[in-house]
Amino acid sequence: MSPNLHSLTAKQKKVYFAIEAFIKAKSYPPTVREIGEILGEKTPGAVQGILNRLEQKGVIKREIGVARSIQLVSNDTLYANPIFVPVIKKISKRHMENLFNVYNIEKYQPISPDIITPGKNYFIINCPDNSMAESGINYGDILVICTDCELNDGDIVLVSYENFTLLRKYYSDGNSDAIVLKADSNLIDREKFNRSEVIIAGKLVLKISKY
Known about the structure:
Largest sheet: 7 strands, antiparallel
Order of helices and strands: HHHEEEHEEEEEEEE
CATH architecture of the largest domain: Ribbon
Number of domains: 2
């Protein structure tokens, strides 16, 4: 069983995670001097003492006489395993039949599992219009859409209607065959639709704006 970090002091954890961050950035382990520079510790002996205790507790390994020999042994990490979400080129009735076709995916972007829920299906697309500008969503914003999240009244959804790709606030209607899709500024001057007229691509769960 891999050792964990629960038994470490705050200072020992700080050194351990400094080593991890260095390895993630450089792809090789730091020297004692480099660890001291990262932590603002000017005394190499103090860093060496902490490394000795980390080694005694079994969370790192080192080779005697080798400068860059630190190996992390614990599975504990500061780095979350990301969820890779496809960036979609187009939304249309034709594309909705096979939204995740390899030809409709530009690339995959990593997103933290602390931000979106693992086990759901998502895609990323640029905001198609300014119809929700008053709600803080503008043309060109990066949108993360969940295709299988439960819809509730007031949720913002991405829909395909005729030749339009639109953002709208979703509301159920007393008529089970109809839905209401509201916008801050309605570009097509219509709010009530039969369910068969539109395809709901999914629910907006995350917006990323560029400044």
